[in-house]
Amino acid sequence: MASVSSISGLLLAMCITVHAASSALIVTGLAASPEDTDEFQRLAGETKRLLVERGFPQENITTLSGRVSREAVLQALQAAKPSAKDDEFWLVLYGHSATVSDEPAFQISGPRLTASDLKTALEAIPARQYVFIGTNASGSFLTPLQSANRNVLTATKGQDEDDQPRFPDEWIEAFGENPKASFARIAARAAALTEDQYKTNSLAQTEHARLADATTGTILEPPFGVDLSVKDPTAAHSNGTDDDGSVDLSKLTVKPRDPNAMWEKQPASDETRKIIAEAQKTPNPDGDAAIMLEQQIAFTVRADRMTERDVSYRVYVPREEAVADWANCFLPQSAPVVTTRLLQARLINPDGSSTVFNPAKVHESIDPNSGESSGESMIFLPDAHAGCVIEIAYRTLQMVDSTIPEVSESLPIQQSVPVLKTSLEVRVPEKPAFHVQLNGLTATPVESVENDRQVSHWDLGPIPSAAALPGDPPPQQWTVWLAVSSLPSWDHFAACYRRLARGSDVIDDSVRAMGKKLAEGAKTRMEKIQRDFEFVSALRYVAIEIGVQGFRPRTPAQVLANRYGDCKDKANLVAALLRSQGIDAHFVLLNRFSYTDVNFPSWQFNHAIAFVPAAAKDGQANDLWLDTTDSVTPFGSVPPGDYGRSGLIFSDDKVEFKTVKTDKSGVSEIRDDWTLRQDANGIWSGQVKRAGLGFADDGLRREYRGFAPVQRQARLFQAFNALWPLAEFSKVQVSDASVQGQPMQLQAEVTGDIARLPQIGDGVQLALAAPTRNRPLLLNDGQPMRFTQTITLHYDHATPKELPAPFHTEAAGEQLSVEWTRVDEHTCRRTASLDLAQGLVSTADYAALRRALHDWNTSLAR
Questions:
Q1: Which of 440, 588, 623, 724 could cross-link with 647 by S-S, CB 3.0 to 4.6 Å?
Q2: Mean pLDDT throughout 41-45?
Q3: How many whole angstroms separate alpha carbon 567 and alpha carbon 630?
Q4: What is the pLDDT of residues 724-752, one digit of tens each?
Q5: SS (HEC) of 478-547
Q6: Could you tell me if 430 and 452 are in contact, meaning their C-beta atoms sit under 8 angstroms apart?
C-alpha cells in the first residue's frame, strides 16, 4: 500500500500538469523611474523564461511593456488561447497600483486598468486561472477577483501597504527554484524569502502577501496552507543555458531542490561534466592556484540614489592552496546602507557532481544579541578540493552617500587571479551626463540608450592577475578598474565641497590669540610656519567622522578647544593660524597612498593637508606642504603616501592641482658612519652611527616610536647585525623619537673581524631581486632618496698599497658610486652612495637599474 506522503506527492504532480494549450499574459505598467522600468522588464523576462520551463509553449506567452494601454491589455485577454478547463492561464502584472474612483486599478498609460475590467475579461476565459499582481497596494484586488476558478496572489495584504514591495523579486526566486511547483507552493516559498530578507537586513516588514485560494474560497496568509518542510516532489532546476548553448552566469538558477536545506549534493549532469572538462583544458603556464574562467559585472546608478552591482563569476581551482580563498565567499552587508543578496553559490567537483548552497540560508551579518553588524556575511561551500569549479552570483545595493550631492564610484575589474573573459556593463542616467571610464586597458565600449539610461558594454579578453608585489605603485596606476562619476568638472566639485564646508574656516578671537602667541619672538616667516606646524602636529589625532563630519572640517576654534582632530581638522587649523599671522595658506585634499586622475572629476580623496605658496621676498624660497596628522613628520618633509600625489588646493575663487613635493635642498638621506680601529691581533672595534634626514628621518621615527627600551634595543641589534653579520654589537642607543628639530640617531659599539666590510641596508636590493617585472616599481614612496655609507678604517699597520678603483654609474636616472680615499698612512675611507632621484622606475628601465645595482654590489665586495 502506498504511503500517504507518496500519494499526496502524486496528486500534487498530477494537479500541476501543464497542457500544450496553456497560455499567459505578462504586463509591465508605468514606472516612476528608469530603474523601475528596468526591474519590471527584468521580472517580466524572467517570468516568461520560467513559464517556458514550466511547460508553456513560448508562442502562447504574451508580454506587454512600455506605454501599455487599457485597450491593449483587454484585447490580449480576449485573445487568450486556453479553451479547456484543464489548461492553465496565468496573468502577471508588474508595476504600481492605486485607487481610481474608490476602485483598485493598475497604473498604465491612459485610462487605468481597474479590478472590474480584469474581472470581466477573466470571466470569459474557461481555463484554470492564476493571477499574480506584483505591485504596491495590490491586496485590494483580492476580493473583487476572488473566484472558484481563480487563484489570486498579491504582494501586499491591503491598500495601506503602499511601498514598492520586494515580494515580486522573491517570487521569481521561488519560481526559479522549481518552475513546475504548485502556484501555492511558489507563493509560500516567496513569502518565506521575503520575510528572511527583512530579518537579514534588520528592517521592519512593510509588506505581507496574500492568496485568494480557489479551493477554500478564502483569503489565506503565508504559508497559504503549504508545508515547506515537506520536500517538493516536482523539484527541478534551470541550468542557465541560453538558446545558443552558451552559459549566462547571471541567469543561473541552480538551487537546492529542498528549500530547507543549507547545502545539497546533486549528481553529475551533462552541463556540469562539460564545465569541468572545459576547465581542465584551460592552459595554466604559470601554475596559478586559481583561474577565473569568466566574470560578469553590471553596475547601475539608479534614480533613487542607490547603486546596484550584479557580480557573477566562475573560478577553476587547480591547486589545494586556493580552495579556502574561493570556497568561502564574503558578501558586504551593512543594512540599510549596503545590502547584498546571494543569487547562486555552487561547487562543481572534478567528477561533475555538485554541492549547491541555498541562498536563503546565508548567515545573517547582524548579531541578534548585540544588534551589531559584522559588515559582511559568509557563504561556505563544504568538501571543496583541488580540481573543483566554483560559481558565485550576487547583487549588492548601496545607498549613495547623501552628504555628497553627486555620484562617484570606482570598481576593480582586474582580480587577484587571471581572468580569461569579462563582460562589463554600466548603466547610468542619460541626464545629467555621467563620466564613465575604463582604466588600464584600451577598449572601446558599445554604447546605447535604454529606458533613459546611457549603457556602456565591454567584452574583454584575458586579464592577468593583479597579485601584489613589493614596490607596487598605487593600484590605480597599473590595474584595470572602472570609474563612474556624475561630476561635470573640478570647479563643480569645488563648489559642492565649499557648500559642504561653508563656515568651517572661520577665524575667531581664540585662533587669532593662539596665532599671536605662537608668533611671539619668531624672527622669520619660516620660523613662524615651523612653530605653527609643530604646535598642530603635537595635537592628538582623533577621528570622529559621523555623517557630514566625514567630509566637513571642524572649525579651527573647535579643534583648539578640543586639543584634537583628524587630518582635515588639523589641516584646517594650521592654515587658519598661518592666515591669522598674515601668511597665505590653503586647505588641500589629497589621495594618500593612492592616485588621483586629475582629468576625471570625482571624489578621489582620503586625506587633507595644508599648502603655503612660496614667497621668496619673505624668505620662503619654495612651496611648503604641511601634513600635521601626527607628530612624527619633521618640518619641511612630508610623510609616507603624500609625496608625488596630486593635491587639490582650495583658493578663494578657484581650485587647482599641484604635485606634492619637498624642498629640493632638503634631501632625504640615510647616513651610516662606521669608525673602526684595528688592534695588534687584527680585530676591529669601534662605533657605528645611523642618522636620517627628511623622509628617512620620518621613517626611523615611525619605526622606533612607542617601543619600550628593551624593544628598541632588540630592534637595533637586528638592524645592525643585518649589516655586519659576523660582528658583535653592544651599548646600543636610540635618540628620542618624540623630539622634533634634530635628526633621529641610532648608534652602537661594535667588534669584529673584517672578512667583508659592513653592507648597506638600503632596501633597494630586495626591491630589484626579481629578474623581470611587469609593472612599474615604486622606490622610497616615490621620494628622492640618498643612501650613504662611510667606513673609516684605522689600521694597526700601514694601509694597503693599492686601493680599489672608484666606481660610478647611472641607470634610469639613478646614480651609484663607490670611492676609496687614503686619509693618511694608517687610515683609509670608503664612501658608497646610492642616489635615487627617480622614485618611480618604469618597466622598461627596470632591467638596466638592476644590472647597475649588480655592478655596484660587485664593486662594494672588492
A1: 588
A2: 90
A3: 9
A4: 988 999 999 998 877 776 788 999 999 98
A5: CCCEEEEECCCCHHHHHHHHHHHHCCCCCCCHHHHHHHHHHHCCCCCHHHHHHHHHHHHHHCEECCCCCH
A6: yes
pLDDT band at 702 (very low <50, low <70, confident <90, very high): confident
Q: Judging by beta carbons within 10 Å of its beta carbon (0-12, 13-18, 19+), is residue 848 exposed, middle or buried?
A: middle
Cβ atoms of residues 399 and 594 within 8 Å = no
Neighbour tally for 463: CB within 10 Å:
21
Q: Which of 801, 807, 838, 843 is nearest to 822 (CA)?
A: 801
Q: Which residues of 409-448 are buried (b: 16+ CB within 10 A; e: fewer)?
A: bbbebbbebbbbebbbbbbbbeeeebbbbbbbeeeeeeee
C-alpha cell read off for 178:
522549481
Angle, alpha carbons 767-772-776 (nearest 5°): 60
Q: State the residue for C-alpha cell 497559504.
A: 224
Q: How many domains does the chain have?
A: 4
Report DSSP letters for 195-229, one per residue.
HHHHHHTT-------EEE-TTT-SEEPTTTT--TT
Nearest to 838 by CA among 819, 815, 822, 861: 815
In-domain check, residue 82: yes
Residue 673: the pLDDT is: 96
Locate the DSSP E strands across 796-855: 807-811, 814-824, 827-836, 840-841
Strand partners, 316: 291, 389
More confident residue, 135 or 215: 135
Give the span between the Cα atoms of 29 and 65, in whole angstroms: 7
235 belongs to a structural domain: no
Q: Looking at the structure, do residues 582 and 679 belong to the same domain, yes or no?
A: no
Coil/strand/helix, residue 606: coil
* Partners of residue 340 on adjacent β-strands: 396
Q: Is 477 in the same domain as 505?
A: no
In Å, how far from its chain's centre is CA 535? Answer: 36
Residue 471 shares a structural domain with residue 386: yes
Residue type, 70: R
Three cell numbers written together for 809: 654609474
For CA atoms 161, 162, 163, 167, the dihedral sign is positive
C-alpha cell at 20: 500544450
pLDDT at 20 over 90: no
Tell me the one-letter amino acid at 515: G
Q: State the DSSP code for 109.
A: B
pLDDT number for residue 319: 96
Residue position matching grid coordinates 639613478: 814
Q: What is the bridge-based pairing of β-strands 540-541 and 446-450?
A: unpaired
Domain that holds residue 410: 249-482
Residue 431 lies in a domain: yes
CA–CA gap between residue 232 and residue 238 (Å, rounded): 16
Q: Give the residue from 202, 220, 238 where a domain finishes.
A: 220
Rounded Cα gap, residues 498 and 587, in angstroms: 11
Residue 144 φ/ψ region, left for φ over 0, alpha for ψ in the -120 to 50 degree band, beta for the rest = alpha
Whether residue 728 is found in the same domain as residue 592: no
CA nearest to 260, candidates 348, 346, 196: 196
Which residue is listed with cell 516612476? Answer: 32
Q: What's the pTM?
A: 0.73
Residue whose C-alpha cell is 598605487: 474
DSSP state of 615: B
Q: Are residues 284 and 304 in the same domain?
A: yes
User: Percentage of residues in the chain with pLDDT exceeding 90?
Assistant: 60
